[in-house]
Amino acid sequence: MSFHYKNGYLYCEDLRIKDIQQQVPSSPFYLYSLAQLEANYAAYSHALEGMDAFVGYAIKANNNLTLLKRLREMGSGAVLVSGNELQIALAAGFDARQTIFNGNGKTLDELRLAVEHNVLINVDSEFDLAHIQQAAAQLDKLADVLIRINPDVDAEVHPYVSTGIKNSKFGIRNERLDWFLAEIRNDARLNLVGVHCHLGSTIKKVRVFRDATERMVEFIRAIHAEGFRLRYLNLGGGLGIDYERTGEDIPTPRALVDSINDLLPEDITLIIEPGRSIIGDTAVFVNSVTGVKTNGSKHFIVTDGSMAELIRPSLYDAYQHIQFIEPVIGKVETYDIVGPVCESADFLGKARELPTPDEGVGLVVCDAGAYCHAMSSNYNLKMQPPEYLVDGDKLTCIRRAETLEDYLRVFDIP
Ligand SMILES: Cc1ncc(COP(=O)(O)O)c(C=O)c1O
Q1: CB 306 within 8 A of CB 384
Q2: Most ligand 1 atoms within 8 A of CB, residue of 85, 201, 205, 375 to mutate
Q3: Which of 44, 57, 80, 198 to mutate to test the pocket of ligand 1 (most atoms within 8 A of CB)?
Q4: How far apart are the C-alpha atoms of 398 and 105, rounded to whole Å?
Q5: pLDDT tens sequence across 233-248
Q6: Is there a contact between 387 and 373 (Cβ–Cβ < 8 Å)?
Q7: Residue 364: which of 7, 12, 6 has the closest Cα?
Q8: How confident is the model over 120-166, as pLDDT tens digits?
Q9: How far is the CA of 244 from the centre of ligand 1 (A)?
Q10: For ligand 1, which residues put their CB under 6 angstroms from it?
Q11: Nearest Cα to 174, choosing from 197, 204, 190, 144?
Q12: Beta carbons within 8 Å of 309's beta carbon, 6+ residues apart
């Protein structure tokens, strides 16, 4: 209960969000609970206790450096999808042996960086393997690789976040496995250490993980039969969270691990790579109401936050719960909550039954820790919002607000 109401006001841990809103210099902003982050990570570490396994936190979900350092201190590894994510993982102090570099379009520069730092690298395609070979040759260094298999398991999620079905852009064509094995065998600088798959995000059925594990274990056996000795099964696929607040039964990390544990071969280290289920419900996106309007048939609450700072509703038609941070007693109407961006796609929520707020009232978009700040943009020249972390009754700024001055700096070309 890191976010909870007391006397009609929303709190983050021991702090009243209205007080924070009045105290900080700009709006909108992101507000995180450290206690929630610790609880979410602990759910994974407890589920994996006693197993040969580690968590690779998916930095793509949220790359705030302070939060990354906290996760690293809790024992997490990291899953990366770009060279810059690799750099920030190093800056946060992650152990390179617990970092895995994924991606269907890794560049040679990024791969050189990964080889240089002994990061595990997932092979996605023929050209990706060739680039890894080039990077290893240029540095005259060994590269530890995993093959990204496409398990062709339907995660039953929005098509934009489904990654493990046959027509996905990710992973090798499984029929070509022998070719990949031969190439790797013939290159003394490549060391095949495992297999990887990724199923998708917002998964709500553990059966999906079990089906994929069964398939992956078949691949491990087939690769062992070719004389390789694999060390890692990197099982990617993210659990959903209760965005809709329906109280539906969403699998816990323990349920995920229990669903696959009996299938895991001996001498294999399991790597799981959650993002959303670790960071998603640790934050709210705090807005101030700019005004309320109607077009005759529809009612709108216009906020200072928008699709530029939180794009999931516009991009995926995603639902995120919206609530006021203080008592509001106006007439209840059905509202679309929209931002100031010059796009009809700019909305944070649609058709919400809410009391009519006065200007300046605080409103939060819940579960805003994952894929929200990380996906923010400067569209309409909106500046990226600041982030604050609450630890009990302590508030710390963990990313300052971007300023127009910061933005204009990139144009300083003689
Ligand atoms: C390769 C990879 N790993 C990890 C993740 C994290 O998934 P989630 O945030 O759903 O846990 C993703 C997200 O799509 C991904 O593509």
Answers
A1: no
A2: 201
A3: 198
A4: 31
A5: 999 989 999 999 988 8
A6: yes
A7: 12
A8: 999 999 999 999 999 999 999 999 999 999 877 766 667 666 665 67
A9: 20
A10: 58, 61, 79, 102, 161, 163, 198, 201, 236, 238, 273-277, 370
A11: 197
A12: 28, 285, 372, 373, 376, 382, 384, 385
Atom of ligand 1 nearest to the CA of 278: 11
Environment class of 267 (CB within 10 Å of its CB; exposed 0-12, middle 13-18, buried 19+): exposed
The amino acid present at 405, given as its one-letter code, is E
**pLDDT at position 343 over 90:** yes
* pTM score over 0.90: yes
Centre of ligand 1 from the C-alpha of residue 147, in Å: 17
Question: What tokens does 111 get?
Answer: 């791969």
Q: How far is the CA of 60 from the centre of ligand 1 (A)?
A: 7
- Protein residue whose Cα sits closest to atom 7 of ligand 1: 238
**Position 134: which residue type?**
Q
Token couple for 54: 């580690």
212 in Cβ contact with 235 (< 8 Å): yes
Question: Nearest Cα to 278, choosing from 55, 103, 86, 50?
Answer: 55
**CB–CB of 362/285 below 8 Å?**
no
Among 102, 147, 273, the mutation site with the greatest number of ligand 1 atoms within 8 A of its Cβ is: 273
pLDDT tens string 27-41: 999 999 999 999 999
Q: What are the residue numbers of the active site?
A: 342
- Which atom of ligand 1 has the smallest separation from the CA of 273? 4
The pair of structure tokens assigned to 287 is: 């807005």
